[in-house]
Amino acid sequence: MCNSKYKRVMLKLSGEALSGENGYGIDFDFTKKIAQQIKKLVDMDIRVGAVVGGGNIWRGRNGEDMDRTTADYMGMLATCINALALQDSLENLGVNTRVQTAIEMREVAEPFIRRRAMRHLEKGRVVIFAAGTGNPYFSTDTAASLRAAEIEADVILLAKKVDGVYDKDPHKCTDAKKFKKLSYIEVLEKGLQVMDSTATSLCMDNNIPILVFGLDDPENITRAAIGEDIGTLVCKE
Ligand code: UDP
């Protein structure tokens, strides 16, 4: 037990996060490091929901001249592959988990049922929400915002390649300034690279804070959850 700032968190991992340095596929060594951090949260009695992206396998049309909705369904299926990989890494560490999918595939995982998800969380199981929102034209960031609202998460822990939100691309501009705190409106008005606007608006309407931090050091997951001063916090004001 510990006096962590947040009691129930929604961890959003992009698909890229699971690919480690490769940018494609799944790096199981890195996935294990993420799983170890999630285990720490569970051991501290923090309830954890997780949404994983799919960009390490498939994103949007992936540069192909194909039907958008078909491409999006491929992306949603990619998130299921990642969810199973994360589930496997967690269960190898003895963490109880459930994967719930927004598109039914009962032989593989439970369908998303909110009440069931809540019960799993109460029992200390990590619930991994897969297949995004189940709808094309959305993103897994929006899925994370939606599920965060549904499971009444205190915060969305948004793990990124960059260690917070900057006014310019820090990889390109040496004078890029990192924000400590931002309001949802500032993010939307300045078009800052946090989440897409649908996801940000959903958080704003439901008053869910978003803590953006870097996954270069997986221990940041624990630091973020216990309320250490890292990354950028996006909230009401
Ligand atoms: N996707 C979708 N609906 C959703 C979530 C995801 O259509 O609710 C598709 C979309 O094509 C997206 C892909 O799945 O590009 C992978 O998700 P995302 O790009 O959010 O993954 P990440 O960038 O977090 O790895």
TrEMBL record:
Catalytic activity annotation: UMP + ATP = UDP + ADP
Binding site for ATP: 12-15, 55, 59, 166, 169
Molecular function per GO: UMP kinase activity
Domain Aspartate/glutamate/uridylate kinase: 7-213
Keyword flag Transferase: yes
Entry EC number(s): 2.7.4.22
Tagged with keyword Ubl conjugation: no
Subcellular location(s) of the protein: Cytoplasm
Pathway named in the protein's UniProt entry: Pyrimidine metabolism; CTP biosynthesis via de novo pathway; UDP from UMP (UMPK route): step 1/1
EC top class named in words: transferase
CDD domains: AAK_UMPK-PyrH-Ec
Binding site for UMP: 54, 72, 133-140
Entry superkingdom: Bacteria
Main location: cytoplasm
Region called Involved in allosteric activation by GTP, residue ranges: 20-25
Alphabetical UniProt keywords: Allosteric enzyme, ATP-binding, Cytoplasm, Kinase, Nucleotide-binding, Pyrimidine biosynthesis, Transferase
Protein activity control: Allosterically activated by GTP. Inhibited by UTP.
The family this protein is said to belong to: Belongs to the UMP kinase family.
Record's subunit section: Homohexamer.
Its biological purpose: Catalyzes the reversible phosphorylation of UMP to UDP.
Name this protein carries in UniProt: Uridylate kinase
